[in-house]
Input
Amino acid sequence: MEQYIINFVNDFGYLGIILLITLENVFPPIPSEVILTFAGFITLSSKLTVWGSVLAATIGAVIGADWGSDSIYYWKLSNHRTLRTSNQ
Output
């Protein structure tokens, strides 16, 4: 898992951090601490900067929180409609 995260961030840079943090917010099995630790480690050996990584993580967290809350809302809304129509 660690090598996959390192390779993903190395290959995609800031976009990789955004995608991983977004997925972490939507699907919680991946802890953000692991992603951000490796992102910080990679700043020592690549062109990524600490502030760029912080900004990318913030953008990913905002997108993930918005996407996650919207998907939960629509899931609950669709289940409520299904339950309501099946009871009638």
Summary: The helical segments are 2-12, 14-26, 32-42, 50-87.
